[in-house]
Amino acid sequence: MKDPQVKKLIDAEKKRQKKVVNLIASENYVSNDVLEALGSELTNKYAEGYAGKRYYGGNEVTDKIELLAISRALELFKLAPAEWHVNVQPLSGSPANLAVYAALVPPGGKIMGMSLDHGGHLTHGHKVSFTGKIWNQIPYGIDPITEVINYDQILEQAINEKPNVIVAGYTAYPRTINWAKLREIASASGALLMVDMSHIAGLVAGEAYPSPFPYADIVTTTTHKTLRGPRSAMIFAKKDSRELEKKIDKAVFPGLQGGPHLNQIAAIAVALKEAASPSFKKYAAQVVRNAKVLADELTRRGWRLISGGTDSHLILVDTWMTGVPNDKGVGGVTGKIASDALEADGIIVNKNAIPFDSRPPMDPSGIRLGSAAETTRGKKEKDFKKIAERIDAILKKSAKK
Ligand code: DSN
């Protein structure tokens, strides 16, 4: 690279990434092949439209790339092309979710999504997101005692509210989601069931987490979390007389986006092939095993985990309330203090609200941890045990300050 300033910064970021323990639950490390596709000449090409129906000439190669990504996506999640459609053009997760609502929910309609502090995402209808300004969020949450989803409560709420769409799949919910129950709830209340599987897509692909496809009408996903691809997204739609897929394609282009980023789409195709390999299946299982070890070791040392543990790559630790100083010496670390103290020691996490949080979002009561990135770097149970020991020591030291 001839630009020394940018080169220096990229090199500095590479060094930073190598040196830290990365427990950000939504990050991962892509392969060199994914990087090569992202940095390829495909970035030069305009291809507004869809394969075979472009508004620009010169798309004989890019059509093949988009079709390859589509067929690999359907194959990876074991979907028959006659039954499922996939759009691989969304630029990332938020535009993907926006496109689904724009296609299927009239302005002012109801999006029933999990509250942000219970593990939902901003684009599940939160009021600071346009998804909560154009549409009305009907927020649902977890049970205050068990800290897992109470499906009976959601059923009652859905029947009363009659939302247009129920959104499931979360950013800070560690447990297995009962897709079949959510299907029953959506059907009983006349709502569409949209699953945002961004966090768990790689685990679903690797058969380490139940697939939502037998139950959902629409599935959105980013491609850069557990799926270990480029920053991008996909929208899957069930094909039937409702023609959801046609409405969604129109919402993506020309409704919300212009030219697709073909370099990203090629990188998705590469990542999907990698995710279909036997080694990725082993990876997905290891991600879950590592998260469980981390959860068990932290619990053993006195830290309270939301819902008491994890079934996925993700853990939510209550560093604040655990933290009333007790005879174990644990106590009283806010999410910000915890995340700053860990970062100072080379462990990168994010501060995170916990359900029913009484603290502000910039300094909430917890931290979120994930095992996907470090598992990519080859870490196993014994390494996560050591990571738990380090986290415990750092947090206890901060609590005493
Ligand atoms: N920001 C992502 C996460 O960290 O979960 C979701 O968009």
What keywords describe this structure?
401 residues; alpha/beta; Aspartate Aminotransferase, domain 2; Aspartate Aminotransferase, domain 1; 2 domains; seven-stranded mixed beta sheet; 13 helices; 41% helix; 14% strand; binds D-serine
Overview of this protein structure:
With 401 residues, the protein is of the alpha/beta class. It has two domains: 243 residues, Type I PLP-dependent aspartate aminotransferase-like (Major domain) (Aspartate Aminotransferase, domain 2, 3-Layer(aba) Sandwich); 121 residues, Aspartate Aminotransferase, domain 1 (Alpha-Beta Complex). Helices cover 41% and strands 14% of the residues. The strands form four sheets. Strands 4-10-9-8-7-5-6 form a seven-stranded mixed β-sheet, with helices on both faces. The radius of gyration is 21 Å and the shape is globular. The N and C termini lie far apart (46 Å). The mean pLDDT is 96. The structure holds D-serine. D-serine binds next to loops.
Indicate the CATH class of the largest domain.
Alpha Beta
Number of discrete domains: 2
Number of strands: 15
**What's the assembly state of these chains?**
single chain
Q: Point out poorly predicted stretches.
A: none
Largest sheet: spatial strand order: 4-10-9-8-7-5-6
| Cα separation of the termini | 46 Å
Main β-sheet: number of strands, strand sense, barrel status?
7 strands, mixed
What is the 3D shape? globular
Q: Helical proportion?
A: 40-55%
What is the H/E string?
Answer: HEHEEHEHEEHEHEHEEHHHEEHEEEHH
What is the fold-level CATH name, i.e. the topology of the largest domain? Aspartate Aminotransferase, domain 2
CATH architecture call of the largest domain: 3-Layer(aba) Sandwich
The helix/strand class is: alpha/beta
Q: What's the rounded overall pLDDT mean?
A: 96
